[in-house]
Amino acid sequence: MNTSRKVLISGAGIAGVTLAYWLTRHGFSVTVVERAAGIRDGGYKVDVRGAALTVAERMDLLEEIRALRTDVRSGTVVDASGRRVASMDGDTFGGRVHGDAEILRGDLHRLLFARTENEAEYLFGDSVTALRETSGGVEAAFESGATRTFDLVVGADGLHSVTRELVFGPEREFVRDLGHRISIFSVPNHLELDREEVTYVGPGRTALAYSTARGDAKAMFLFRSEEDVPRDRAGRLQALTAAYEGEGWEVPRFLEAAGEAADLYFDSVSQVHMDRWSRGRVVLLGDAACCASPASGQGTSLALVGAYVLAGELAAAGGDHRAAFDAYEREMRPFAERNQKLGPSNIKRMVLRTRGQVRVSMAMLGLMARMPGRERMMAKIIAPIHAAANAITLKNY
């Protein structure tokens, strides 16, 4: 047992909460600090596939995850007038096979938190402002004014990681912008979608809406841009509106709804590339270490698998954090890099550059939707995703 090992996890997202679960199972004393006031509910839909399913199963969570699946049953592509170009069943459209589970991020988050809230210490509404390694560990200063010392610190605080910036250097050294922006938010279900996803593709910009088993609806916008992401809400709304000016389908109505959305998310589609994920007694996890971007479809799976591996290697190393961090990277880096390769290739299919590409793609989708054996054709398209999702053999720690 490692009851004397005190670990601070910065960030209570999927990666941080999963790590808290496994570390407490291995006997570590865990504190999790999170800037937000609590666990966020709702959110966009995410996939749990490949090795991440094994992690969920080892947490005895798989049945609960599947009970909360989005149950999206169909996917449709439309043109600017709303005419249906192609329709497929939800699993084929979403590239789900082999027992993959699609769930709202917030639902998964709540399941994970429920397993840890009484086992780990949670500090909500606070954040790390400074880290200083001492002979006795790592001294952490918090925004609240408190100062505490831990044996180890894990940065699980996302793409824009404060931990990474404090220990490794400025974000610009590690974050690679893929030249696209993404926005997701709740919208009124005026299309009366029932567990359905509808996608519209224009040159350089894609828009879609979906409803899940919950009955609510979300809109997502994905578009080409290399402009800086505005820091304030008004600037983000302005950037989103400008990017889709004059666009057809239901885009204008969704843009109106964005102004009222309490859960507006807007960010770059980016990846994180680092030569090393640890320095001294500090290590990075999930998006902070190896963000594969939303375009990869693998961010949640990387968080679940990475947390399992890091906790397992820390337990196996018997107190030698350097050996544990080295082993964590040996296990995870090839898996992370394989999944990162999905991002740039997927984004090219998700956002088409020209009107000509859009016309050809729509014609091909329409033809494929009517052809026998379309499931086999789709399986070939999504095969690289599932190969990457399974590109690690998990140890039994």
TrEMBL record:
UniProt domain FAD-binding: residue ranges: 6-167, 270-339
Q: Where are the transmembrane segments?
A: none
Under the heading Pfam families, the entry gives:
FAD_binding_3
The organism sits in which domain of life?
Bacteria
The molecular function terms in GO held by this entry are: FAD binding
- Write down the SUPFAM superfamilies for this protein, in alphabetical order: FAD/NAD(P)-binding domain
User: Which PANTHER family does this entry report, sorted A to Z?
Assistant: MONOOXYGENASE, OXIDOREDUCTASE-RELATED
- Record protein name field: FAD-dependent oxidoreductase
